[in-house]
Amino acid sequence: MTRADPLAQYNKKRDFKLTPEPAGKVAKGSGNRFIVQKHDATRLHYDFRLEAGGVLKSWAVTKGPSANPDDKRLAVRTEDHPMAYADFEGVIPRGEYGGGTVMLWDRGTWAPVEGKSAKDIERGHLHFTLDGERMKGEWLLVRMKPRKGEKRENWLLRKIDDAYAGGSDDLTGRYLTSVLTGRPMAEIAGDEGGEQSLKGAKGKLFAKKMTAAAAHNRKVAKTAKTGARPPKFRKLQLATLVDSVPAGNNWFHEIKFDGYRALVAAAGERVVVYTRSGLDWAGKFAPLARHIAALDLPPCLIDGEIVAYGKDGNPDFSSLQAVLKRGHGAQDEATDLRFFAFDLLEEGGKPLTALGNLERKERLEALLGDAAPPIAVADHVIGAGEKLYDAMCGAGQEGIIAKRADAPYAGRRSKNWVKVKCTRRQEFVIVGWKESSAKARPFASLLLAQREKDELVYKGNVGTGFDADTMATLAAKLARRARKTAPVEVDRAAARKVHWVKPDLVAEIAFAEYTAGGAVRHASFVGLRADKEAKDVTPETRAKAPAPASDVKISSRDRIIFPEAKATKGDLADYYAAVAPVMLPHLARRPVSLVRCPQGRAKQCFFQKHDSGSFGPHVRHVPIEEKDGAVEDYLYVEDADGILACVQMGTIEFHGWGSHADAVERPDRMVFDLDPDEGLDFADVKKAAADLKRQLADIGLVSFAMLSGGKGVHVVVPLSPGHSWDAHKDFAKRFAEALALSEPGRFTATMSKAKRKGRIFIDYLRNQRGSTAVMPYSARAREGAPVAAPIGWDALAEVDSPRRWSIGDAEDLLERAASAELKGWGFARQALPDF
């Protein structure tokens, strides 16, 4: 690729009278610029470009960059491009070299790692860092050994495993708009002189309307965000201390971070950081507030923990105090502070506290898809809490938090959140200090107390855990709080040489146990808790961990439901009990139609959507007006017991509406079912799903793939409610018809079996009032007991059957559900284009 004029090949391939691309001239740039352009040419790809030697060294990454270190993406070396190309976005006319739509998808700066340089490109191995809007951290570009007769240079682009590494679908699958103009591909393609992404008369009309709608929606969203205020403070959910990790898959488990609890309220650039008592500490955590503001979030209220890391690489409360003592002006924004978000209480002006814990967590994953360190969503595991607990204790961490997956958020302490600690640590009020005989120490120990029945009760002394700076700071605070009388009752020996203080300082203390008299034994000072008030400091006692329990009894557990798989009703119930936590975020509170097969799938099966009362109290009802004006009670469930009550009544499949029971007339989920003709194989369906995803992305809509457990794939498009069922159905119909018109040999939008010959039917009819689609993780009444399984777009390409998972794979499905591949699956805040 080395040549006298590095841009000769670039200029030779283009007629600048016909293309809007800039002419090739070597130019002096900033020296470290990088860009990525999404390029819809003959094939969609991503052009990755690094500034070096006055030009942009370029590679075409066929599948786009991935933040998953396990993904090695093919990157074909192309001709060098001029520096002016770094700002290019538009449409290259069809017929010209590279004809198609170009989006500026990412931009920023790059640098070789220490000891490396840009000259390593010609050596075929470049190790570098990126600081872009979407691509960050360490990366590798490695040239592959050429095959015999191969003329092009094939390289591999790979992410290094660091703090910025993540799932493979979190980049190209979630970021669908330009970093330069905020436009989706269809809007860029819709510029005058460009071609629409959907061909044909109806397709062009549809695309033009989508282009205008996308621009309108961006403007409306930006206006709404600019004028919005951050949400107000809410009382926090608190965890109950328990003696062991709760068992069962209805719990998910997170690390108990050793830091300050914080409630972040954001609306665009406006950010408030509330302490647990409702104080605004955005000033104290200014670097974090700036990072959150840069995310340009809709109005939202996020619960989480602010931490700093110690020398051992673990979150450390003392290190956090040291950072705060230095002041935010001295803080290194990239390393000193981290905010681990773990809950979402409000979004877009709508409270979410009534939703289940895991559903709120999934919505949080979708909301913070743009986040990168120092902002992160706390990881979790479903079930298997003992393993996480042992790992945390082995690493010297504080412990874990376990949360009941289907429980709402309560602004109080409850057993729906429990904490299991590796060591004893509690808060105490400082009520006095004892003199020290050593000149270097301003005090020998601190006297501690906790509030019991509205009175302070003496709890012993702490004399270790202080360094010189901490002692000096404490001594100054204690001197300002001196008082003559004791704020607690103590015996004469304990009061000897004690200087009493106003009891308003809260300290966190680690200790081995309580003595018979109620004093702490082997106590060590951890730090002051400025975020907690003395009036709230009470003793923590370990309660019994909640036991797994269900009010639903499954009868006839040995009845064969799936003859071929020899799977019983008990097996089916156990499957649903296991996957209920990951199923409920999608199923809960949606009107459902059940496929009931009381004698098994090989016998009589039927749909049921109404209930005469036979399902019991765990299955809820919502009155819905029918087409004829009559009102009928429809079924829905809210928790695992509701699912099991349906299974007890012979249910195999769950099919849900595209709206929720509390907002029946406001659809929020669109599903395209790709149903192939019998002559087609699954590879055709997978390709069709990928094409559908691409067309939706062109108009700025994020979509998700699900194996149906039947013949095909469902493409799921989550939407913000606010449009009517008529608009919902009309959009789905036009979109399906436009695709069918663009490729009539592959697709049909007509249900007719005769017109489906050799084609894939894009079933949009599920997107009308009263229609349903099979829900994620639902079993199917088919041979082999298959299930409908969410799947990442990259993983879809590797699967060879829509029935890949069955009811015997609950453990695998749970593990996948908590993986990077499926974080935030099925959730996205996006409006239906208005036209």
Automatic annotation (TrEMBL):
Molecular functions per Gene Ontology: ATP binding; DNA binding; DNA ligase (ATP) activity; DNA-directed DNA polymerase activity; exonuclease activity; metal ion binding
Location of the Rhodanese domain: 260-318
Keyword Membrane found: no
EC number: 6.5.1.1
CDD domains for this protein: Adenylation_DNA_ligase_LigD_LigC, OBF_DNA_ligase_LigD, PaeLigD_Pol_like
Single GO biological process annotation from the record: DNA recombination
Pfam families, per the entry: DNA_ligase_A_C, DNA_ligase_A_M, LigD_N, LigD_Prim-Pol
Cofactor requirements of the protein: Mn(2+)
Catalytic reaction(s) noted: ATP + (deoxyribonucleotide)n-3'-hydroxyl + 5'-phospho-(deoxyribonucleotide)m = (deoxyribonucleotide)n+m + AMP + diphosphate
Record's keyword terms, sorted: ATP-binding, DNA damage, DNA recombination, DNA repair, DNA-binding, DNA-directed DNA polymerase, Exonuclease, Hydrolase, Ligase, Manganese, Metal-binding, Multifunctional enzyme, Nuclease, Nucleotide-binding, Nucleotidyltransferase, Transferase
Transmembrane segments: none
PROSITE patterns: RHODANESE_3 (PS50206)
PANTHER family: BIFUNCTIONAL NON-HOMOLOGOUS END JOINING PROTEIN LIGD (PTHR42705)
Protein name: DNA ligase (ATP)
